[in-house]
Amino acid sequence: MIPASTKRTTLAPILFLVAAMPAYAHVGAGSTSSFAAGFAHPLSGLDHMTAMVAVGLWAAMKGGKALWAWPFAFLGVMLAGGALGMLHV
């Protein structure tokens, strides 16, 4: 028999995934046609700031080379995503 705590731990993420709705983020919200708007975008929302702080904290907990490599990798992936967005990919 499967313990109740294992059932709850497994069932909760499945329910969240099933109940999730698409966010339709970044579509026609505010100014999106200038360099300044693109540069300021990551600093404009709590979700963006939370992600950046989480990457920094995770890297700090890991220590060593991750302290610099992970935030720079995060920045590189964000720049690549921005470039793909500008190319309408």
Q: How would you describe this structure to a colleague?
A:
The chain has a domain at 34-89. By secondary structure, the protein is mainly alpha-helical. Helices cover 67% and strands 0% of the residues. Helix 3 packs antiparallel against helix 4 (66-86). It has helices spanning 4-19, 35-40, 46-62, 66-86. It contains four helices and no strands.
Question: Would you kindly provide a brief summary of this structure?
Answer:
This protein has 89 residues and is mainly α. It has helices at 4-19, 35-40, 46-62, 66-86.
The total of beta strands comes to 0
**Oligomerization status of the protein chains:** single chain
Share of helix, binned? 55-70%
Termini separation comes to: 49 Å
Q: Secondary-structure element order, as H and E?
A: HHHH
Structural class determined from secondary elements: mainly alpha
Quickly list its features.
mainly alpha
Layout: helices, strands, pairs:
Blueprint: H1 4-19, H2 35-40, H3 46-62, H4 66-86
